[in-house]
Specification:
The radius of gyration is 47 Å and the shape is rod-shaped. It has 12 helices and 7 strands.
Length: about 450
């Protein structure tokens, strides 16, 4: 906006782009008018017209340089027309330069330059022959032609060549300026898109990390609360059972801390790498794109770190998961159908988390209820179902576990992200059922 204001402030009137150009043309037109006016006197004496008319004609011819930028072809035609009168040397040079530097088609430039060259050559040859004859010297024809040709080329070739060079340079500069403006607009769009991607990656990161934290903490902490309540109830009556419950609480706490430590460690290392990358000398679009890529990578690594390491969540750990719920007092049964297969880390982790969250919900919302976990290995998919009956009336007085209300939402997001199907809802018997079907994606027989 500032650049446009500056340009409009120095813009000249009429057809001049700048006041400086207008001043230059006025000066050139004045000098040319004076020159042609003085040359109009000998022209008037030779042709027999009044001297005043010859001077006026010369002034008008020379003043035509005032419109050289607006009508370069017309000025050159005036110069060619005044060539037989032997007036307007400055007019011819400046008009040819202006014509060659303008955006007039090359064919027109070549035609008018050729006419000017021929006209100047004929006039120079005739004047030279008259001068030589007046002095009584009679050189050869070729000598006269050669001398007249040198004079003609000296008056026409330099301005045409200089004008062609200046015009080509001007067009190149304008082209480079347009390309620079286009690149600036493109970089601005890329910066906006990179910023949007970075914001989307940050939001996605928050959502997925929150889901991972929920999956890691909710199940084990829920079991710890259940065991702590059992420990409180049996501490005096059955010290041996209380000791076992205390050991289970400690084991579950250590497992939860280990998983959280692994996840937070990966997040810290990813953030450190992203911060080092953003401190480089890259431009704003590249920096924003790097931030978005680092955030996305951090999300993926954080989401998979628990399932990628040894002993992490996988289908082989379902038996231990069910055993932990049994140890907490839940009557739960595990049923595995089909040929056991190994799946990708994402599929196994998602299946494990679905079962884990479903059992956690049973602990929270249906204490004392009986649960059944079914796992079916199929040709191109793995199917899961966790179903529980209604909560027992005598178990209502157990520990009350808080619920964030996002468990089912998180399970659905995980399954749908892998192209699967997730269904949940109450059963006719008063319980609750969670079902999921996840594509195998390259499973191999164990």
């Amino acid at each position: 906006m500032a650049d446009v204001t500056a340009r409009s402030a120095v813009a000249g009137p009429w057809w001049w782009a700048r006041r400086r150009a207008m001043v230059l043309d006025v000066v050139l037109a004045a000098v040319s008018a004076v020159e042609c006016g003085l040359e109009g006197l000998p022209f008037a004496s030779e042709t027999g017209i009044p001297a005043g008319l010859g001077v006026l004609l010369g002034v008008l011819v020379g003043a035509s340089l005032l419109v050289r930028r607006r009508w370069p072809v017309a000025v050159v035609l005036v110069s060619i027309g005044s060539t037989p009168a032997e007036m307007g040397a400055l007019l011819g040079v400046v008009s040819l330069y202006t014509l060659a530097a303008s955006d007039v088609p090359r064919r027109v430039i070549a035609l008018l330059s050729g006419l000017s060259l021929v006209g100047t050559l004929v006039v120079a040859l005739a004047r030279l022959q008259q001068d030589v004859a007046a002095d009584g010297y009679r050189p050869g024809v070729w000598a006269l032609v050669m001398f007249a040709g040198v004079v003609t080329l000296g008056l026409t070739a330099p301005p045409v060549l200089l004008g062609l060079y200046v015009g080509a340079r001007r067009r190149l500069v304008e082209s480079l300026r347009e390309r620079a403006d286009g690149l600036e607009r493109e970089l601005s769009l890329l910066a906006e898109r990179a910023e949007e991607r970075a914001e989307w990656a940050r939001n996605e990161e928050r959502t997925r990390i929150a889901r991972e934290m929920h999956d890691v903490v909710a199940h084990r902490v829920s079991l710890m609360v259940v065991h702590a309540a059992a420990l409180q109830a049996t501490a005096l009556k059955d010290p041996e059972k209380a000791s076992r419950n205390a050991a289970l609480v400690g084991d579950m706490g250590r497992q939860a801390l280990t998983e959280l430590r692994e996840m937070l460690g990966v997040l810290r290392s990813s953030e450190a790498g992203a911060g080092a990358g953003s401190g480089s000398g890259a431009g704003e679009p590249e920096r924003l794109a790097a931030v978005a890529a680092a955030a996305s990578a951090r999300v993926r690594v954080a989401a998979d770190v628990v399932g990628a390491g040894d002993g992490g969540p996988c289908l082989e750990g379902l038996a231990d998961l069910v055993g932990q719920s049994r140890a907490a007092g839940m009557a739960v049964e595990l049923s595995v159908l089909g040929e056991v297969r190994a799946y990708g880390p994402g599929v196994e982790q998602t299946a494990y988390r679905v079962v884990q969250e479903a059992l956690t919900n049973v602990h929270k919302h249906a204490p004392g209820a009986r649960a059944v976990v079914r796992l079916a290995h199929r040709d191109a998919e793995v199917a899961l179902q966790v179903e529980n009956g209604p909560a027992e009336a005598g178990a209502e007085g157990g520990p009350r576990l808080p619920s964030g209300g996002n468990g089912l939402v998180g399970m659905r997001e995980r399954v749908v992200a892998l192209g699967g199907v997730f269904v949940s809802g109450p059963t006719e018997a008063g319980g609750f059922r969670v079902s999921a079907v996840i594509p195998a994606k390259g499973a191999s027989v164990v």
